[in-house]
Structure formats: structure tokens, C-alpha cells
Amino acid sequence: GQHCGAGERGELVVRGHNVMKGYIGRPDATDEAIDSGGWFHTGDIATRDEDNFFYIVDRAKDLIVRGGFNVYPREVEETLMTHSDISLAAVVGIPDERVGEEIKAFVITRPGTTLTESEVLAWCRARLAVYKCPRVVQFCRELPLNATGKVLKQQLKDASSAAIA
Predict the structure, then answer these.
(1) In whole numbers, what is the pLDDT of the chain averaged over residues?
(2) Is the terminal CB of the chain with fewer CB neighbours within 10 Å at N or C?
């Protein structure tokens, strides 16, 4: 409900004659996406620079709230991807009784590497604030992708939740 300063993260909202009026046959979804002032909540987390250019940096639905701190998965994923032995990474929040959500990283390593969970965690601790570091690392051969190559994080969350239950 407030404007963010340059460089601050916030949800991107838009309003205008060219913005949709709502979802056909889905009034609940429309009420959730469009507020009483006519602002459409895109679900995108963005920053704005001094020249008023906007940069989408994450999705609000992907946001992990760990112990009261907001963790943007994309930042953790980008950090993981700087490791020379990691070819792809995805980060999701999984339920945790103590902190609400815990951070889990799904990692695909490059062929011929022998990366361990403790090495990945140490890599993150050296580069991220403590509350942003994954607590669990799962190594995978592949990640679920949609037709455009985007990681299907809900499938990762669902699989993790089922394993916990």
C-alpha cells in the first residue's frame, strides 16, 4: 500500500484502461488480484531505479517467510548458480514448526562432480545472510519444467511436503 524507494523491493501493481477488468467467470480470483482502487496486483516483486525503470526480481508467491524474515528464492538460486559445480538450482519454502518455513534447495550438479550437501551449505553461508541460507539440499538429476523451461516450484513443494508428512 506504500510506494517503495529506488532500489527497494515491492509488489508491482498497475492500473489503467489497458489492464484487464477481471478473470472471466472467476470473481474470487478477480477480487484477489484487483483491489478496490482498481490496482491490479501482478504478483511480481520488482525494484525501481533512479530513472524510474522497473526490474522484476521475483514472484510474490515464491517468497519464503523464514522466522519473520522475507527470503527471495531467486537471490538464493543466483548465489547457488555461481558455484562452478552447480548447473541448475531451485529454492522453495517447506513447512517448519519452529520458523514457519524453512529453505530447501534442489540442486543439479555438473557431470563428474562430487559436491556434497555440507559443501553447498558452506558456499551459501559464505555469501548470504544466515537467514537466507538453505537448511536442506536435495540433489536431483532433473527438475520439473514447464514447456518454456521454467521450474515448476509447486511440484517441488508438493513433493517435499509429502515427504515430510
Answers:
(1) 90
(2) C
Give domain status of residue 3, yes or no.
no
Q: In what order do the strands lie in the sheet with 40-48?
A: 10-14, 40-48, 54-59
**Do both 85 and 29 map to the same domain?**
no
**8-state DSSP, 80:** H
Query: Whole-structure pTM over 0.90, yes or no?
Result: no
Residue 114 C-alpha cell reads as: 562430487
Domain span at residue 25 reads 10-60
Q: Are residues 68 and 127 in the same domain?
A: yes
Amino acid letter for position 138? Q
Q: What is the pLDDT of residues 48-75, one digit of tens each?
A: 999 989 998 877 778 899 999 989 899 9
DSSP letter for each residue of 15-31: -STTS----TT-HHHHH
